[in-house]
Amino acid sequence: MIRAYLFALDPTEAQADAMASHCGATRVAYNWCLARVKANWSQRAAEQTYGLTGDQLTPWVATSAYSLRKAWNAAKDEVAPWWKQNSKEAYASGCANLAAALANRTAGRAKMPRFKSKRTARMSCKFTTGRFGLVRDRRHVQLPVIGVVRTGESTRKLARKIDAGTARIRSATLSYQRGRWHVSFSVDLPDAAPEERTGGGVVGVDLGISHLATLSTGEQVPNQRRLDAELSNLRRAERACARRRGPDRRTGVAPSNRWKKARARADRIHTRVANLRRDDTHQFTTRLVREFDTIVIEDLHVAGMLRNRRLARHIAGVSWAEIRRQLTYKTERAGVRLVVADRWFASSKTCSECGTAKAKLPLNERVFACLACGIILDRDENAARNLAAAAVDTGELRRELPDGSDVRRTCSHASQSHRHGKSPHRTQRHHRKVVAR
User: Fold this and answer.
1) Quick one: 6 and 136 in the same domain?
2) Least crowded by CB within 10 Å, which of 52, 55, 61, 221?
């Protein structure tokens, strides 16, 4: 199995300039190869308008990583006479990135790649050969040409595996993200067998906003609201940026040094919020995987929910999609069963005690009261119980679906009987579609 180990770097000013130069070299090679490919395709399209076909057309330019790198090496003395300042892997990384982008376009997974901007493109560079890896003091890393760079944290977790012979570093990716330089090592590790698990049980997880999640056990995981806690500081930092002279691409005005410092302060607040939010999510998902054998979650349409301008910031702050992504790979690694309930499963409107479904349940009703059996409990806990039951009951469930219910009917004869004037207030069968991941 292949895993990535990400370490924050603490470079000197000269090393930071060298890192930026390597990332810029990757971008230059990428843009040059892309311009060459587009010129070839445009030439062929123009020749076809004159009636040329077959061998009369200009030959295709090969778009493999090897071909692009070979073409770059032939033209680098003219295109970039300063190429010796950086490692050859920087230019090879740009050619490989374009080859992968063009392959994704051919396979229909992406659109035509675009040129990378010097101002907005993320700085990144990958090393696959040369001297790179960990230094024995476990506080520095080695990078080609750049040299030995101090890390912001200890590398002992990866160093112990390398010393034991159970890990091998395949490549190193240098990147500038969240206001800091980082290096990510791609490490080849042996496939770990899932641990023997007994008695973990089943848990239903209902994600929310007021609480990060409500479990079928009755536990409510608090939402720390990391962004809300920093909003006042963030507003003050953003106002300071607005008062400084920022960059203007239309007039070519360069940003002032005071604007750069103010922008750095605002970026640090964003970075802190993102790190705290990521840590909360990892702790929550890791605890679920350790304590339970089967985890049931909902298939939420997060992109659609974000269109609600009143709740968009709060929905984005709880990272529902990130929670599902982490649960997916953590359960696979630990041998835990992950069940994703169907998006149309009425977990909130259905009574977890008797199975009766309500026609409507507004969001402002936070307590679920069943008129059939009389049970009264928290709305989110009721939904979590229904999700936990979905992991066991995968067949048909009898549900009360009165007319006007938003629950999708799966029985075709139900709608036919309603059109013939029969009473819609009767018990129908509602299917729970469960997808095991």
Assistant:
1) yes
2) 55
**192 versus 89: which is more confidently predicted?**
89
Could you give the CA distance from residue 25 to residue 94 in angstroms, rounded to a whole number? 8
Domain's final residue, options 188, 212, 233: 188
Report the C-alpha gap between 330 and 341 in whole angstroms.
18
Instruction: Note if 137 is an active site residue.
Output: no
Cα-Cα-Cα-Cα torsion 210, 212, 218, 219, nearest 10 degrees, comes to -120
Q: What is the mean pLDDT of residues 157-176?
A: 94
Q: Is the same domain home to 183 and 216?
A: no
| Domain extent for 287 | 202-223+271-393
Q: Which of 89, 206, 293, 381 is catalytic?
A: 206
Predicted local confidence at residue 196, as pLDDT: 66
Q: Is residue 412 part of a domain?
A: no
Whether the CB-CB separation of 20 and 11 falls below 8 Å is answered with no
**pLDDT tens digits, 396-424:** 333 333 344 333 333 333 333 333 444 33
Domain count along the chain: 2
Q: Is 206 a catalytic residue?
A: yes
- The reply to whether 298 belongs to the active site is yes
Single out the catalytic residue among 293, 380, 381, 400.
380
